[in-house]
TrEMBL record:
<keyword id="KW-0472">Membrane</keyword>
<keyword id="KW-0812">Transmembrane</keyword>
<feature type="transmembrane region" description="Helical">
    <location>
        <begin position="21"/>
        <end position="44"/>
    </location>
</feature>
<feature type="transmembrane region" description="Helical">
    <location>
        <begin position="121"/>
        <end position="138"/>
    </location>
</feature>
<dbReference type="InterPro" id="IPR004699">
    <property type="entry name" value="PTS_IID_sorb"/>
</dbReference>
<keyword id="KW-1133">Transmembrane helix</keyword>
<dbReference type="Pfam" id="PF03608">
    <property type="entry name" value="EII-GUT"/>
</dbReference>
<feature type="transmembrane region" description="Helical">
    <location>
        <begin position="64"/>
        <end position="85"/>
    </location>
</feature>
<feature type="transmembrane region" description="Helical">
    <location>
        <begin position="145"/>
        <end position="164"/>
    </location>
</feature>
<protein>
    <submittedName>
        <fullName>PTS glucitol/sorbitol transporter subunit IIC</fullName>
    </submittedName>
</protein>
Amino acid sequence: MDFLVRLAEGFSGIFNAGGENLMGLVTGILPSLIVLLTAVNALVAMIGEDRVTKFARFTTNNVILRYTVFPVLSVFFLTNPMCYTFGRFLPEKQKPAFYDAAVSFVHPILGLFPHANAGELFVWVGISSGITTLGLSISPLAIRYFLAGLVVILIRGIVTEIITKTMWNDVKASADSKV
């Protein structure tokens, strides 16, 4: 009987802990997320969608900008999962590499800009919980996480672009040899 009581209390405890975590988010990060998301949408409206589009096309002309600035802007402004639609500014051969870079950046951006991937904020909270438990600032960790993410997305974008071009050429060569 004691075992069943402990099991029931443990089961209820899971939901109590989840509720406490939710209340912490509601009183802590959610108001910031709402204000930040509103500010980003207002900024895009003030700049103008046409100007944002022209700038996006400009950043895709250079390989380094294409796999650093462009994914960062897409994740920041459109957030996950809408950020992948920025791929429309790229030729077909570069879309897989852009997607790889953007999808790899939806977590490193969380420490500085939690609105970008609010649905998975628990990843950042889990990573930074040790720092906050010690009473230290999480800002240095957030900056390092962001910078490491930039390096990773650049490498992934370039490597994936090379792989895609190689596969694209192999498919084209195979199709040409059948003709």
